[in-house]
Write a structure and sequence with these properties.
This protein has 374 residues and is α/β, with parallel strands linked by helices. It has 2 domains: 109 residues, Aspartate Aminotransferase, domain 1 (Alpha-Beta Complex), CATH 3.90.1150; 249 residues, 3-Layer(aba) Sandwich (Aspartate Aminotransferase, domain 2). The protein is built from 11 helices and 13 strands. Pyridoxal-5'-phosphate binds next to helix 4 and helix 5.
């Protein structure tokens, strides 16, 4: 991934392309395609395929645990982040008068489940200033009624990375709230220390270079009792086929409650392969390779006639930068004509830099932007 040889070998589809859109869709290495083929082979075995299916499941959970800093028993895999967040909103045991804090740089998956009518809590919004979230603004929202603070570590919108340690310290000082963290835009891209987080959630089709169809859930055992998923199913139940099954439902506490039915095995194979690829490459090595490109891109964008909506402090960034321009859509088209891929959405352009990107990709982007904005 990090050298021209491994990039060409593992990502042949990147040839000639400046692909700067991993925050939308990661490019899987060939090993992920092979894993999906393996799933099909194993599925041909019918019921006998369950043995290799569950071997992949165990391997995926072990790798995920390592990535989250948890044991394999403290993690699980459901079908997408949105599913995990919806189950979380049911699992938190919220009551009238409780409060949940979300923020206005977050992706809808993590903020909207708490807004539903059947969620009894009052939602308070931590609003950004100058495209950054400030912990002192969060402090003014925290109190004895705060039960949950839910945020992305890295904003899908502008790449802002919350100061995690400082934020959690403030939460613990001013409330008894559980910290829910969406690491979709960080996992596989930057080293993580999630020790103090109570519920971690991630999608699977971006920076871990895997397929769609996964929601990666982690709950440390110290917080497991705070998350009891109120949902039927079988895979998530203590004794799904016991004699009492038509009288009561008892869900496994913590992460295990979030996989309600048969795991999405195709995704599980792909997740195992994607996580193994990231582990072999090394997240520290990915960050070390991509950081200079991020800084060069930030500096280049700062000198252009665009409205940068990402923080200018590189320490508050992971792999995403965003800017606005009245002609964003036309600029996007002109970039595409040069085989330069970024995200255009809601009037903004978003650049995402991963380990398979090169300084040449960034230079191509900046050169084309200079040309079209001249
Ligand atoms: C922070 C974040 N969370 C979640 C998602 C996607 O959620 P899901 O896995 O439910 O599609 C995205 C997609 O862009 C995202 O950026």
């Amino acid at each position: 991934m990090l050298t021209s040889e491994t990039r060409a070998r593992d990502f042949p589809h990147l040839e000639g392309k400046a692909y700067l859109n991993t925050a939308a869709e990661g490019i899987p290495p060939l090993a992920v395609g092979e894993a999906l083929q393996q799933y099909v082979n194993d599925k041909q075995l019918g019921m006998d395929g369950r043995e290799p299916h569950f071997e992949q499941w165990n391997a995926a959970c072990t790798l995920l645990g390592e990535m989250y800093g948890l044991s394999a028993e403290e993690v699980t895999i459901c079908s997408c982040s949105s599913e995990a967040f919806n189950l979380a909103a049911r699992a938190a045991g919220l009551e009238q008068g409780d409060e949940v804090i979300i923020n206005d740089l977050d992706f809808p998956a993590g903020s909207t489940p708490w807004l539903h009518d059947d969620c009894p809590a009052t939602v308070r919004v931590w609003r950004h200033r100058d495209w950054s979230l400030h912990v002192e603004d969060l402090v003014s929202l925290l109190g004895p009624r705060t039960r949950v603070v839910s945020t992305s570590l890295v904003s899908f919108f502008n790449g802002f990375m919350v100061p995690l340690e400082e934020m959690i310290e403030a939460i613990h000082q001013h409330s008894d709230a559980q910290v829910v963290l969406d690491v979709t835009q960080a996992l596989g891209r930057i080293p993580l220390d999630l020790t103090q987080v109570d519920l971690v959630i991630s999608s699977t089709h971006k920076w871990i270079l895997s397929s769609h169809g996964g929601g990666l859930v982690g709950i440390p055992s110290r917080s497991a009792d705070r998350w009891n998923v109120q949902a039927g199913g079988w895979f998530n139940l203590q004794d799904a086929f016991g004699s009492e099954r038509f009288e009561q439902v008892v869900v496994k506490p913590g992460a295990a409650g979030f996989t309600v039915g048969m795991p999405n095995f195709p995704a599980v194979y792909a997740i195992r392969a994607g996580l193994a690829y990231i582990k072999d490459t090394g997240v520290e090595a990915i960050e070390a390779a991509a950081r200079p490109q991020m800084e060069a891109c930030l500096e280049g964008l700062t000198g252009l006639p665009v409205e940068l909506i990402s923080p200018r402090d590189p320490s508050r960034l992971a792999g995403i930068l965003a800017f606005r321009h009245p002609d964003a859509e036309a600029i996007h088209q002109q970039l595409l004509e040069e085989n330069i891929h970024v995200m255009a959405h809601a009037g903004r352009l978003r650049v995402a830099i991963h380990g398979y990107n090169t300084m040449e990709d960034v230079e191509r982007l900046l050169a084309k932007l200079r040309e079209v904005l001249a």
